[in-house]
Amino acid sequence: xxxxxxxxxxxxxxxxxxxxxxxxxxxxxxxxxxxxxxxxxxxxxxxxxxxxxxxxxxxxxxxxxxxxxxxxxxxxxxxxxxxxxxxxxxxxxxxxxxxxxxxxxxxxxxxxxxxxxxxxxxxxxxxxxxxxxxxxxxxxxxxxxxxxxxxxxx
Length: 154
Description:
The protein is α+β, with helices and mostly antiparallel strands. It contains 3 helices and 9 strands; from the N terminus they run ββββαβββββαα. The chain folds into 3 domains: 58 residues, no CATH class; 34 residues, no CATH class; 49 residues. The chain is 33% helix and 40% strand. It has a 3-stranded antiparallel sheet, with no helix packed on it. Strands 2-3-4 form a 3-stranded antiparallel sheet, with no helix packed on it. Strand 5 and strand 6 form a beta hairpin. Helix 2 packs antiparallel against helix 3. It starts with a strand and ends with a helix.
């Protein structure tokens, strides 16, 4: 479970987790980690709770970092990949261009093979044969997607 930074607080050698207003759970911290003192000087931003351990994420640097050079932002949707290209000159980003690539063919291939795998799982009762046929179907799907990517040169 991931807990937002507003719902917990590091207090010395333990973490106070808020369950509801006024009700807390305290979890001990292993402070013997060689980097704990350096990290704990930063701001605790996230807390990850699992069955076996507690992981705290610290934000160390509070100063703003300037973006340098160029960068690309990509948005992966179900049917397209949208890319935005920008250049940064003296702290002012300038938009260089955008690009949209359709991935509907890949979605079609994945849906088709999903139906095939479901049919194989339903109708083949011999485990060894089922696993072999499923492995073959995954390989064929991978090959078709790779061929499509090579054609489009992503």
